[in-house]
Specification:
Blueprint: H1 2-35, H2 37-43, E1 55-58, E2 61-68, E3 71-77, H3 81-90, H4 103-106, H5 110-117, E4 133-135, E5 142-147, H6 149-153, H7 155-165, E6 168-173, H8 189-209, E7 213-217, H9 232-250, E8 254-258, H10 268-271, E9 284-285, H11 290-302, E10 306-308, H12 311-314, E11 319-320, E12 323-324, E13 327-328, H13 338-348
Parallel strand pairs: 5-6, 5-7, 7-8, 8-10
Antiparallel strand pairs: 1-2, 2-3, 4-6, 9-11, 12-13
Helix pairs in contact: 1-2, 7-13, 9-11
Length: 353
């Protein structure tokens, strides 16, 4: 009994020591988290550092998943106000309460307002094609924006930049008519003929206006009639290569190609018919159209031009939200709203500085 009594205090003391040591370990861990959230978060089981380039917000700071010494670790980064809005927008589950304009008014053709503001429409409702449309002409660099309906949708962006750079700006576009020399499968014979005339007119505008910068934007995913033994994308890329070579040959100018917007899977009007929650089909994906953007970059750089990918501006962490800040990005599944296109000018200007 005496020997047992002598041992008991030692066991109790040992238990207390283990408890104190465990408590100290917890305190050190918490202190380490507050002193170095980057390292502790990256090594914790809660870490989301599983995809290179992924941005995560930890309290009020932003971290990017980067590779260091062969391992993925979180590195603290600074985001611009635009990027912070974009990050927040990817987390949306409901509609923002401070929308700039109702969804209903944002729907419909953005370029209607664009044309109306610039007095583009004739009495017959046709837009001019043969001479291009002067836009608040300045005495700076001569810039021509050319494309299909995406050219109209991004038009307000260039109006904003024209004010900043005092460009001598002209705009010319024809809906559903590729810059790339391809046939479009859903077009009637009359519509195809109209598109062919438009392509001829585009060359005429370039030769007459002699732009120093030619900005191109189009939607290559309009149904292309593929050549025998080719996919639609392959046929379209060959058509783009041919058209760019012809454009460069006609005038000495810098060509800038803007990527097709990533878009969303469904228009917001459609995806909200079921309820007010933002479901997955209200958002878009970076992976969509990746081959198209790659082809655009390859072909424009072949002729010494530059490629501007809108994806980092419209998407983060692989997700492309229908809102950025309090502005609805798309009026349908791909065309910008007028309001968002105006906002985009402030972000896109750095590519033209």
């Amino acid at each position: 009994m005496n020997s047992v009594r002598k041992i008991q205090p030692k066991l109790i003391f040992a238990g207390r020591t283990r408890f104190i040591n465990f408590y100290l370990i917890i305190m050190i861990g918490v202190t380490g988290l507050s002193l170095n959230p980057e390292m502790s978060f990256a090594s914790s089981s809660a870490s989301k550092c599983i995809s290179l380039g992924k941005i995560e917000k930890i309290k009020s700071d932003y971290f990017e998943c980067a590779k260091s010494a062969g391992q993925l670790k979180l590195k603290k980064v600074s985001l611009s106000p635009w990027q912070k809005n974009l990050y927040s927008s990817t987390k949306l589950t409901k509609l923002p309460e401070n929308l700039v304009e109702p969804i209903e008014s944002a729907a419909g053709w953005t370029d209607n307002r664009f044309r109306r503001d610039l007095n583009w429409l004739s009495d017959e409702g046709n837009s001019p094609m043969s001479d291009g449309v002067p836009v608040n002409n300045g005495n700076g660099v001569k810039v021509l924006l050319m494309g299909d309906s995406l050219g109209a949708a991004i038009g307000p962006t260039f109006l904003q930049m024209q004010k900043l750079f005092t460009w001598n700006l002209r705009v010319i576009f024809t809906s559903s008519c590729h810059i790339a020399d391809t046939k479009i499968s859903f077009k009637s014979k009359e519509e195809l003929e109209k598109c062919n005339i438009a392509r001829t007119d585009r060359i005429k505008v370039i030769n007459d206006f002699k732009p120093e910068i030619l900005v191109l934007i189009e939607d290559p995913l309009n149904p292309v009639l593929p050549n025998k033994g080719e996919t639609s994308i392959q046929t379209w890329q060959k058509g783009l290569e041919s058209s760019l070579a012809q454009l460069v040959k006609s005038q000495k100018m810098k060509i800038v190609m803007i990527s097709r917007p990533t878009g969303v899977n469904k228009s917001l009007q459609d995806c909200l018919k079921r309820n007010t929650q933002l479901s997955n089909d209200c958002f878009g994906s970076v992976s969509k159209d990746l081959s198209v953007r790659r082809a655009q970059k390859i072909e424009v750089e072949k002729v010494g031009g530059s490629f501007v990918d809108l994806t980092p501006i419209l998407c983060m962490n692989g997700t492309c939200p229908p809102f950025i800040g309090n502005a609805l990005v798309y009026r349908d599944h791909i065309h910008f709203t007028y309001r968002f296109s105006e906002m985009l000018g402030d972000e896109l200007k750095k590519y033209f500085t």
